[in-house]
Each structure stands twice: as C-alpha cells, then as structure tokens.
Write the structure tokens for this entry.
Amino acid sequence: MEDAAGRPGQRIDRWLWCARFSKSRSVAAALIQSGRLRVNGERISKASRNVRPGDVLTFPLGTHIRVIEIVLLGLRRGPASEAAALYRDLEPPPEPGAARTTAELATGRSPGMGRPTKKERRQTDALKKNE
C-alpha cells in the first residue's frame, strides 16, 4: 500500500501481527485503540494508520516498554527469524541482575522454578519469622 506521495506503507495492526508482537490483528487493534501505542512520539488510536520503514514505535508489551524502529514491511506472518528482521530494537540491553523481582530477591529463586526443596522451604520460613 502506498500513500499520496507514493511511499510504501502498511497498516500498523497488520505490521504488529507480521512482526509477531501480537497473536492476532484484533489484539493488535485493541492495543492501538487503547491509546498506548506511539508512532514517532505521537499517540495513535486508529489501526488503519500506515507505518513506513524508519518509523519508531513505543508500546507496552507485558512488563516491558518496547521501543523499536521499523526496518522492513511485512509481507506475511512467517517464522520468528523472519519477523525479527522486520525491526531493530532500540532498547538498551538489560543490566545483569537488574531484572530480579522482589520474590526472587527474598527467596533466591526465579519464578517458575517449581516447588522449593525442603532446605529452601526452611529458609523461607525463617525469613518470614524474622519479619
């Protein structure tokens, strides 16, 4: 799709779907309509907005704020390696150890590591008694 000046563009909801930032175009449209997505610093609320290579998108995804630059327009929703070629991540890399949650700091375990061992359970109980 081209704009009035003849530059190539693509609907933002379709691009987010092709780049695998959303599971479906309707989920992408809901994100856009919520007003939490910005294109080049401008808040948008319509899924029909065209984006072009060079545009910078800022939007929340899970617990992170993503800042990405569009490199290519998506022709299809392909594999993850193909989707990763559509954008360039502008976020600084996370600092080592900075992403630890409060639960992880208190128990020394990452979430999702399964049930604690008996020794770890005793340590957790001892921490709770000291509070």
About this structure: The longest helix spans residues 118-130. DSSP finds five helices and seven strands in the chain. The first strand starts at residue 10 and ends at 11. The chain has a mean pLDDT of 85.
